[in-house]
Amino acid sequence: MKKRILSILLTLCMTLCFTPISVFAEEVGTEGSAAIQLGTDALSVLSKNVNTASAPTVYFGQNQENKPAAWRVIGYDGSGVTSSKGDITLLAAGAMGVIPFVDAILNNEYAPSNLKATIDALAEKLTTEENAAVKKRALTSGSYDGENTDCVAGGQVDNAVFWPLSAKEAIAVNNDLRALDPAHPNWVTTGWWLRSPGSDKYHLAVVRSEGSVQYSGYSVLIFNNYRTVRPAFNLNMNSVLFASAAVGGKPDGGLTEVSKYSGNEWKLTLLDSRRNFAVTEKTVSAAPDDTVTLNYKGATTGKNEYISVILADNNGAQYYGRVAQPTAESGTVEIKIPSDIAPGDYTMKVFSEQYNGDCKTDLASAFADVTLTVESQPDEQFTLAPGGRYYFDLSAMNIPGTVNSNLPDSTLHYVPFTYVGTVNAYKLTSEMATTEEYAQKNKYPHSLFVADYAVTHTVSWDDLNTAGLIFGKDYAAGGVDYTLRTPSVGSDCTGLDDSQRGVPQSNEWDRILNKDSSYIKNWNGIYSWGQDTTRYNSSLRAVRGYDSGRRWNDDDATDSLPLVGFRPVLEVLNPDTLSSDGLKVVTLDLNGGKLGNSSEDIQIIVKTGSEFTAPASDGLTRPDGDAGSFFMWLGSNGKFYAPGDSVPAEVTKLTAQWTAPTYAVTLNTNGGTINSGNVTGYTYGVGATLPTAGDMTYTGHTFVGWYDNENLTGSPVTAIGGTETGNKEYWAKWEANTYTVTFYPNGGSVNPVAATTDSSGKLSSLPTPTRGGNYRFDGWYTEQTGGIKVTLNQVYTADTTLYAYWIYTSGSSSSEDRDDPSDNAFITDRPNKDNPTTPTTAKSNSVKVDSEGNAVITRSIVADVISVAQSDSIKHGNTKNGIAVVVPVEMERKPLRKKLRILYIPVILSVLCITVCIISSMLIYNKTYRFYTEQYYKIAQAFEQVSSFSSTLDLCQKLPSSTAYNNLADAYDIELLSACSDLFSTRFEFDNNERQEIESLYDIVRTSIPDKLNLLKDGINDSEKCKDALAAVRADVTTVADKLNNVIEKSIATGNKAYDNNRINVYLIEGLMIAIFIGFIIVTAYLISFIEKRIIKPIRDIADWSRMFNDDYADMSDIEITDNDEISDISSAFNIVKAKLCEANKTKRDNESTLRKLREEEEYKKKFVKQLYDEKREKEIISSEAKRDGLTGLYNRRSFDALIDEFMSNKSVSSEGALFLIDMDNFKNVNDTLGHIAGDEALKTLAGAMRIVFPGGYLGRYGGDEFIAFVPSTCDDETLDRLGSSLCQKMDREFEHGGKSVRLSVSVGIVSTVGIDDYAELYMKADKALYFSKEHGRNQYTLASSLDNFTAD
């Protein structure tokens, strides 16, 4: 039983005693120290706070659970507990087992004890290397000496690896380190064994749980000798290579910055003397993010074996990394320099390491130190992101060799390059084997593009050198200057395969790959020439690539092999003259075309802010199915550019155009009409000519031109050029013609006698003429007899004469009963050529009828009408036809709306009466029905509740007395009393008998039945009384039911009687409704008849009459007029119109016959006149073309000479003149630079300038770029100077065509005819003066007179 209790106790104690290691690490570490400590630093962190509560924790070996064992430093290098020079004393941080000191032998001897066996078992868990790092110790034998006991009982123990402390040593340990669990001082498992004997052979020294040393000892008897194992050992300081934080101190992967560590738990990396690791290199240099390659030997391979690197400076370890797991004892290792490392000098500590994980001891070789110089990573010179692909045109660089068939464009107009960015590397300028000294001295930051392919192959290094492509050939593209050359690649190599590097490693090839291994592409199967000569043979040149991007090899400079090619780099020259954003990307959208097999967008590089040349179309493939030849680039600015054109700096994208685009043209004629030559669109490259004045008409206006804005400002446009783009819209500008209108007073006088029309073709006012005698002015007419009366709205399209019309007033205007005839009468008809016998007809104003329907026509009204008719007939000489007068009578109007209003009223009243009857009938019926229905419902509901109570009563007769009472009481309250109270309280129209019946049954329900129920309650225990009570209740309920039944029968009878009474009222209303409805039908029928006769029929007649407008009007009858209303007015007006149309139709037929004859005569005359004009024009054109130059329109040489010969033959002293001989300077350059079309335009420009300078002279083109002018009556030198200077100034200009420009100028020779009578002599002197001008710098004129005293040098 004791053993079971002890076993349970031990298990519990072991669980509680194995204290977490972190409790020993409180506030011990050096704040902010590095997580890796080298050399003396490594040991110094272990010497901090030795043998104190904050003593460092060191992991070493394994504990009893095969986990990393933790130890506390209690002695260091001769100080502290049991330490000597060169070692460290470590005490187990916690329990490493709970054991009895002995099992069978009951004494305190150490050698045969369980304690020694357990401690030795822990030592056996050490690796060979860990064991070798431990200083072995002899545990001497001795006897008890109180607190100074420092021995073991029994025999001495030699070569102890781990051992328990003695009592004397334990007393020297800090109490905080001794106490395992001070909170539980009575737990035996929180104390631990020492090795010293106690006061007798049955006792052994121990450390109690609170930390005190019991040096007299505890009994080792079997039933009470379980204590904790807590060994110590001495570590050889020289075996420690460095220390690192126990957890995370050695980060995984490549070089990583060593973190700051404030903890106090460390693991050790032991020096493994069996490892013999070394590297060849002693010094290297690199930039951040570069890769350094080292040659190593003596590496250990296998699981957990690494080549590791520590980068250290004067402040200790800065970076740590396990950079590779070697597969061979020797080889090369690549070390990626951290991108965030600061420039400066470092020691690169390279070593072979066995890494075993956190808290576990690692093994390593001695450091192989390499001096590392970290250079500053060059800043990117440009903001252009490295890694982008851009295309360059190398077609003009004369690159020797066979073009690589893998290129997307075999013409080399589009060669892909990858932008590397800025590298700090050397380049060569001549043949040499590159040394490290040269490389370090000559490396510099520069920006490169590297070709994605070997551009050519089967080309020797010597041939490339001869072409200037090894060390650099100037190249410019997009406004940026470059040098095109091979890269530097190193004169030797180090490493193998992908680890191979050119030496010096600061060559351009390796610097590019260090930056990004993908920047150099398509190296498989082909070498690329480099600049460098090999170190071991001056005839060999370095090559790179073929089976690895890093591969370095050599080849003879004279070899031309298919497997060696020219892969150029482009170095950006003069980067300091470009801003950081000086390289701009322009995107080329192939728009369905292809480069190689791809139709994706490509990009080129141009100089920011500068014009650039549009790329070639060579090398691009047209879209599938496109067999055309058109090609242009469409810029992001909406303009087109041919290959070779200058493109403005703001353009960021060019889109290939494989077909000529077409655009819409909108012409706004502003009132005019385009008769021919209309333009609705144009095609790029062709353009269009806009309609001219001869193609357009606008009555009363003259065409000025087309303008590109609605405000008609700027210069007129005559044509759309072939290089223009976009939809166009133009507006026509017209100038209104002005005409003179003459006023003929026709017997009177007028002022002014004429006026001019304004811009609208109208007059602003019409004058009023005067005439003596009895005449009144009637207005201005277009004809002297007849014609049309004009107003200010009249539009004139030609010079016009207007005629005054007069009305004779007879002088009888003094009668008191006469109105002014001009106000009361007017002419409605007079004779004309179509109706010569028609009398002059006058019409008076209408005479209205009085209230009785009588019209009063006074003598004065008739006299006025007669006077007006007589005056007009006299005025126009129509007295023989007589006169006719009309006095219209205006009948009283009976508006149609008044007639209709009379019929509307009965219709509306009928509808209202019918509506009132229907509503009244419905209200009467509804009231009766609702009242008796609700009354019957209430009585029936009460009867139903009484029946329900009766059923409950029947049921209760079968139940016990108490239950019957309770059920009846509830049913009484809920059913019977409630229903009868509701019926009694409702105020229906009962008669007296019905009301008395209801009141009597309500009394029974309210008083009698409750009394009976109380009797039932009182006789609950008496069955006889209960039966009597129930019978009494039954009798009352029967009485109530009978009374309710009587009420129901009486209520039904009353309701039927009321319904019969209401039916009589309803019948009366229905009869009234039928009578009203019949009246409504009669009124409606009359209304329909009225509308049919008075409205619809006249309108139908008007419609029928209107449809006959295309027929003969004479066959149409007048519309019948039946009344004096609005419809009658319309009918009367249509009858008048019919009469006029009949007359007009006859006139029209007569006029058409006459007009047809006149048109036939006019057509014949036009044809005859056109024939004569065409013959004359043809002769003039033939004569003009024979005399004129076809390009400029000036006189040709023959006609010009003839004119001047004639002038010279007939000249006199008063008719002198001057000859100007003109030659365009450098005209060949115009044709060569801009083309012959531009050359023709330049000649036309000169001809135009001559017309301006010599407006009255004879102008001619002698041939080519030689022109001639003769100005009559001009001979003084001052005038000749002015004319010569003016011509030179006008022609001294920049001449642009197709995006390019040249400078134009002329040379002029001038001679006066004074003293010269022969044209040949005159021409010779002018030619001499011209020659002088050209010989002395051109762009000038020379007077022949100034050469008379000139002597050549």
- Count of alpha and pi helical runs: 21
Q: How many E-type strands?
A: 75
How many angstroms does the end-to-end distance come to?
A: 145 Å
Mean pLDDT: 83
Whole-angstrom Rg:
66 Å
* Major sheet description: 16 strands, mixed
- The 3D shape can be described as flat
Structural class: alpha+beta
What ranges have pLDDT less than 50 throughout 5 or more consecutive residues? Answer: 1-30, 811-822
- Oligomer category: single chain
Strand content: 25-35%
- The portion of residues assigned to helices is 25-40%
Q: Could you characterize what this model shows?
A:
This protein has 1353 residues and is of the alpha+beta class. It has 21 helices and 75 strands. The strands form 20 sheets. It has a 16-stranded mixed beta sheet that branches. Strands 29-31-32-42-35-34 form a 6-stranded antiparallel beta sheet, covered by helices on one side. A hairpin with a 2-residue loop joins strand 70 and strand 71. Helix 12 packs antiparallel against helix 15, helix 14 runs antiparallel to helix 15 and helix 19 runs antiparallel to helix 20. The chain starts with a helix and ends in a 10-residue tail after the last strand. The N terminus is likely disordered.
Give a brief outline of the structure:
The chain has 1353 residues and is α+β, with helices and mostly antiparallel strands. It has 21 helices and 75 strands.
